[in-house]
Write a structure and sequence with these properties.
Layout (H helix, E strand, L loop, with lengths): L1 H36 L2 E6 L5 H22 L5 H10 L1 H14 L6 E10 L2 E2 L4 E2 L2 E10 L6 E7 L17 H8 L5 H18 L2
Parallel strand pairs: 1-5
Antiparallel strand pairs: 1-6, 2-5, 3-4
Length: about 200
């Protein structure tokens, strides 16, 4: 009888531990989802992995970032940021194609606003969890090379802009991104979870 009672207690403790872990992950995932839903990422995809194409990708990046502050300066949230980007697609495309032409390449840039999947990404001052984000996508030529990405709303990857993640997300979500080392294991779990979601969504 005592053995049975002990097993029941152990099972309850184990169940409680599992529930605690699950709730902790769920709360963390809510913060991650807030980050995904409230930032606009810039995604530049190079024509190929050849050194000259990769170098051009960075030149295009630099020129677009010079104009990003003006494009998004009056945006209050990611919805208005996406609309601002959409109204500037022709302008951004012209900027990218001008850089391409100046560097002697004969392919073109295709610019759009859409959803893009990203793995967990560490920047200098913050980390963004894996998942699907609204993105300003600049596809150069065949778009088969390594890509570059950052956040243009809020303009945290524009050196001249005075912006931070807390401008568009809660302090808790910003803390999650800006203090990534203490959440490293949770970020990895989220990435695995998001990769499974991505795989099953294609079936």
């Amino acid at each position: 009888m005592k053995t049975k009672t002990r097993k029941n207690i152990e099972l309850r403790i184990l169940f409680g531990l599992i529930c605690t872990i699950a709730l902790s992950f769920a709360r963390f995932e809510v913060r991650c989802d807030e980050l995904r839903q409230n930032v606009l990422r810039l995604h530049i995809i190079a024509n190929s992995d050849e050194p000259e194409d990769q170098s051009l990708k960075l030149a295009v990046r630099d020129e677009i970032l010079k104009n990003s502050t003006d494009i998004f300066k009056n945006c209050s949230d990611v919805t208005t940021a996406c609309k601002a980007a959409e109204t500037q697609l022709d302008n951004i495309s012209a900027i990218a194609n001008s850089v391409i032409k100046q560097n002697g390449f004969n392919y073109a840039a295709d610019v759009s606003v859409g959803d893009a999947y990203f793995d967990t990404r560490e920047y200098d001052d913050f980390t963004l969890p894996a998942g699907t984000y609204k993105s300003l996508i600049v596809n150069l030529g065949d778009g088969k090379g390594k890509n570059w990405w950052c956040v243009v709303f809020p303009c945290v990857c524009v050196p001249t802009a005075d912006a931070s993640l807390s401008d568009s997300v809660s302090d808790e979500a910003a803390d999650t991104a800006e203090n990534a080392p203490k959440y490293e294991i949770k970020f990895k779990k989220v990435e695995i979870y998001e990769q499974f979601k991505k795989i099953f969504s294609k079936k």
